[in-house]
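WARN no homologs supplied; continuing
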Amino acid sequence: MKTCKKTSKSCTEFYQRNHLKKIFDDSLDSLEEECGIFGIYSPHNIDTFSLAQFGMFALQHRGQEAAGVSVLKDSVIKTYKSTGLVLDVFKQIEEIEDFQGNAAIGHTRYTTAGGGSSKNIQPLYAVNYFGKPHFSIAHNGNVIETDQLKEELIKEGLPFLATSDTEVILRSIQKYSDLTVQEAIQKGLKEIRGAYSVLLLTKNSLAAFRDPNGIRPLSIGKIGDDTYVFSSETCALDAVGAEFLRDVEPGEIVVADENGLHSYSLEQASKNRICAFEYIYFARPDSTIQGTDIYDLRVQSGRKLFEQSPVEADVVIGVPDSGVPSAIGFSEASGIPFEPILVKNRYMSRSFIVPSQEMRERIVNLKLNPIANKIKGKRLVILDDSIVRGTTSKLLVKILKEAGAKEIHFRSASPPIIAPCFLGIDMPTKKDLISANMTPEELVNYLGVDSLDFLSVPNLIEILGSTNHCFGCFTEKYPVERTTQKDEFYQKKIEY
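OK structure emitted
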């Protein structure tokens, strides 16, 4: 059997992993978040094992491919990581006592750059001259155009063991590891561009920092008098009983150590350009991002959609889970009753092998199944968080028609997605984004609906309350510009 040049895996295995992943992704037509990060620091030993587990579990929605944790105990960093869901990974840890210390960082992963190799599972760590872990890093986001910097670091003798963009951050900081942690971060990040919210665990501190645009979220909480918690979302602070303090600011470095919390600057020009899609889709509805309650914002999006496109109908339904709040908002604004009549199977995975188109279509029935007697003869308004490739939306419309729907009016709680994201979201290339390739009229015909509308960008800005966000996937204007070919990143993204 032939083997692939870049790996020892057989070509058959290489094909299956890529092909079956694409089949499943195309069938479910979803976007995937980049990662979730969670960290905790205390000047004394605490139950870091349980707290890291609880916090990472609360962030499981941000990545389901792999998870890992690094714990600081007696000035020694120990790491465990593996493929699988958070609880599956923690079950594999046999010596729980080794993962009880005074600080920890954790990571839930969905591949965005560097491929699915186990070497890319985070946290990644750097070792000192004695071969002991010197510090460990967990990263949410994606940094860009790192090839030249990586070559320079290799020439300076810094080892690269993985293929992810996170390791470029790691080695860039490692280059200055003889300095204080904040100085090493300041100097190491000078040439790094893109989106990054990062936790860095050292032998005596935990540092948290965001890129100068603040594209990915990162919040700070506190337990008691001297234990600090850092998380991609506030829902994980709630999970460990932490009081929310504030967000890490764009371009800020926050260091927790035995003397408390300290703030420094990356010493780069900063502005707030957090990803708008965090609010629309990725964040859990019980989270708050930069003072905005996610649930309330999604309800407002549904109200705005009714203002944009009023329609007469019998029932409003939402695609679970993130489409439900906007459906509730649409119902409140229109007076049309909301019914939770799409049932979601919460145990979907990528493990189905589905060689035929007919069977691929049935996957949607496995994920979402309507209560038919609530639909037959009814005029429906269906709210979803977004339309990406359009495949799931089209199949869902087909299912609703087969259940007897009289009319179907489709509303998207996000603007049309017309451009790919290179700042930390796993998104198709532009040729696969249906709104980038069809007119509204063509989309109506393709989906087979009676009407269709998307939340407008001006209305999204209004409910967000500011233009200080990244709207790149809706406008093709990004806070960080690339100099390379726009689709090059996606051509290289998945390597096995």
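The radius of gyration is 23 Å.
OK
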